[in-house]
């Protein structure tokens, strides 16, 4: 399939600009946080186009399905949507394999939103025929099953699937010939690697263990991260969009230093800052990519707010956990 011109996105870009008015803004988040009860908080969601009568989980599931379906029908190249669906497929692969190893039913932990309907994926796996799945996904799931059978180590199987997930995202971005999307995928890899490095160092491990968990394909090479000592981790990312997050990560490695919540938030904020650049593009694939990311970010924020309210957290604590908004 040939690369689409930015002018092919004129119509959908104009429609997305209009739909962005219904995205969850900081003001709407504050109203949800400060709402007197669940019903009042759900009414704010209805302003953003959610079915507030369906209940939170059903409303979010319905909204995600509608966004993906809308963009698949409307975007000149529907494969743009797949980049955001892939992670759900690999989550479901992990869930199915772990449940199979433990002899439990994975169905309640499966997530919708992927390229493959969760229950159909489960049934195909049980029949040992992953019809319609990508070759990369099929090979990864079979390899992860063999690795789990041999090692009985679910972490190793998860890492194998993680690598395949990012490889498939990168391959799709290359096929789409989208520099903006390729940059997003590379930054996703950098975020995953920075988080992994901080986690491994906090566990008191490094060297070969760190090498095993790092992913390839980021802006910052695996070797650069491996070569840096824990006290120089921020230097590796200093010239890029993760400079602030890396500094916070480095503080976490010092006695009594730093906030894990703040570090995680800054990692996500770096992704938001990159994707938010799409709003400066009048028309093109960037508008679709940015909007899909904005909706995914919105779903996460809504869950965080309602989970915080259910846990009885005060407003300031909930706000401290929220990421920067796309709009």
Could you explain the architecture of this structure?
The chain is mainly alpha-helical and 327 residues long. The chain folds into 2 domains: 1-77 and 179-327, no CATH class; 81-175, V-type ATP synthase subunit C domain (V-type ATP synthase subunit C fold), CATH 1.20.1690. The chain contains 16 helices and no strands. Helix 2 (26-34) runs antiparallel to helix 3 (38-47). The chain is globular, with a radius of gyration of 20 Å. The two termini are 32 Å apart. The mean pLDDT is 93.
Protein traits:
327 residues, mainly alpha, V-type ATP synthase subunit C fold, 68% helix
- Mean of pLDDT: 93
- Major β-sheet annotation: none
Please trace the helix and strand order, writing H or E for each element: HHHHHHHHHHHHHHHH
Question: Helical proportion?
Answer: 55-70%
SSE blueprint and pairings:
Elements: H1 10-19, H2 26-34, H3 38-47, H4 56-74, H5 79-102, H6 118-126, H7 135-151, H8 154-175, H9 179-202, H10 208-213, H11 222-227, H12 233-237, H13 243-252, H14 260-276, H15 285-310, H16 315-321
Helix pairs in contact: 1-15, 2-3, 4-15, 5-7, 5-8, 7-8, 8-9, 9-13, 9-14, 13-14, 15-16
Short description:
It is built from 16 helices and no strands. It has helices at residues 10-19, 26-34, 38-47, 56-74, 79-102, 118-126, 135-151, 154-175, 179-202, 208-213, 222-227, 233-237, 243-252, 260-276, 285-310, 315-321. The longest helix is centred in the C-terminal third of the chain and has 26 residues, at 285-310.
